[in-house]
Design a protein that fits this description.
By secondary structure, the protein is an alpha+beta fold. It has a single domain (23-132), classed as Roll (Thiol Ester Dehydrase, Chain A), CATH 3.10.129.10. The chain has helices spanning 40-59, 140-143, and strands spanning 23-25, 63-73, 82-92, 96-106, 114-126. A 5-stranded antiparallel beta sheet has the order 1-3-4-5-2, covered by helices on one side. The longest helix is centred in the middle third of the chain and has 20 residues, at 40-59. The structure holds coenzyme A (COA). The site of coenzyme A (COA) has 14 residues, from β2 and β5.
Length: 146
Amino acid sequence: MTTPVNTAPTHTNRLPEGKMPQLRVMPAPHDANVYGDVFGGWIMAQVDIAGSLPATRRANGRVATIAVNSFLFKNPVFVGDLLSFYADIVKVGNTSITVYVEVYAERNRLQANIVKVTEATLTYVATGEDRKPRQLPPLESLISHQ
Ligand SMILES: CC(C)(COP(=O)(O)OP(=O)(O)OC[C@H]1O[C@@H](n2cnc3c(N)ncnc32)[C@H](O)[C@@H]1OP(=O)(O)O)[C@@H](O)C(=O)NCCC(=O)NCCS
């Protein structure tokens, strides 16, 4: 698999065109340290949630995160940034789905001030009720439900 890394400049002044974010969220003071920088662990949790959404749709059911393949905190995130999480499936296996997640911050609530803050690649595994790996359904079986 070729993991897309650093595919876009960090200061773009615009959000990715023609794509819908999976998640938009604004960190609050309790998500930050005493200097006002948002905790990396909080960002990782949101990235995990955002990445799980396309994975869950592709799996047509529950998934579990098996690996964080890469994670780059390219720029700091501040309380009050409006974060947009974009997630794309980059690889599908028998039971696994690998997702590339990019995070952009709109600073000071100004859309003109947009910074790419984070990018990550995570792998999810489709699981059954028994929490064991489950074969992914054929893509064709999902199309009518997407
Ligand atoms: C997810 C889980 C059910 C998978 O079971 P497993 O027996 O470890 O999985 P397998 O070895 O059969 O591998 C399953 C898939 O994951 C892939 N995989 C395994 N290790 C991997 C790794 N380090 N990185 C990327 N993919 C990996 C395998 O290649 C396989 O993919 P494929 O079927 O598409 O070829 C099990 O590992 C688990 O329960 N882990 C804990 C999950 C968890 O609690 N996550 C946090 C909360 S969601």
